[in-house]
């Protein structure tokens, strides 16, 4: 696969208790086991189109994970941590390979 496939769908994730990263995720009725977490990074920036005067409440709070599954596919997921009143959720962002 040459071009990333944009997905952006909510998924259910089983997390590693100690590290917090994904060990598996369920997408469209199929369970994908994570073989390796290739990379992680945080995004605490402002979304495109945010007002010029930045307000901390508009910031994104996401942890991204690039993972390889046991079938050899590579995906990017993120955990949108949200705010206290709206608990975080997981999104399958794209398939890279």
How many domains, as an integer?
1
**N-end to C-end Cα span:** 5 Å
- Strand tally: 6
Envelope shape: globular
Helix content: under 10%
Radius of gyration: 14 Å
Number of helices: 0
Which structural category fits the helices and strands? mainly beta
Give the ordered list of helices and strands. EEEEEE
Strand order of the largest sheet: 1-2-3-4-5-6
pLDDT under 50 segments (min length 5)?
none
Assembly category: single chain
Determine the strand fraction and express it as a percent band.
over 45%
Mean pLDDT: 83
Q: Largest sheet, if any?
A: 6 strands, antiparallel, barrel
Reconstruct the topology from this structure.
Layout: E1 5-15, E2 22-27, E3 30-43, E4 62-69, E5 74-83, E6 86-95
Antiparallel strand pairs: 1-2, 1-6, 2-3, 3-4, 4-5, 5-6
Keywords:
97 residues, mainly beta, 6-stranded antiparallel β-barrel, 0% helix, 61% strand, globular
Note down, in words, how this protein is organized.
This protein has about 100 residues and is mainly beta. It has one domain (about 5-95). The chain is built from no helices and 6 strands. The chain has strands at about 5-15, 20-25, 30-45, 60-70, 75-85, 85-95. A 6-stranded antiparallel beta barrel has the order 1-2-3-4-5-6. β5 and β6 form a beta hairpin.
């Amino acid at each position: 696969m040459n071009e990333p496939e944009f997905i952006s769908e909510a998924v259910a994730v089983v997390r590693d208790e100690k590290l917090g990263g994904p060990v598996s995720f369920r997408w469209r009725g199929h369970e994908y086991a994570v073989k390796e977490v290739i990379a992680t990074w945080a995004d605490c920036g402002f979304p495109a189109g945010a007002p010029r005067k930045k307000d901390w409440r508009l910031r994104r709070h996401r942890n991204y994970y690039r993972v390889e599954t046991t079938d050899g596919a590579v995906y990017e997921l993120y955990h949108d941590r949200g705010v206290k009143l709206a608990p975080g959720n997981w999104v399958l962002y794209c398939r890279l390979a």
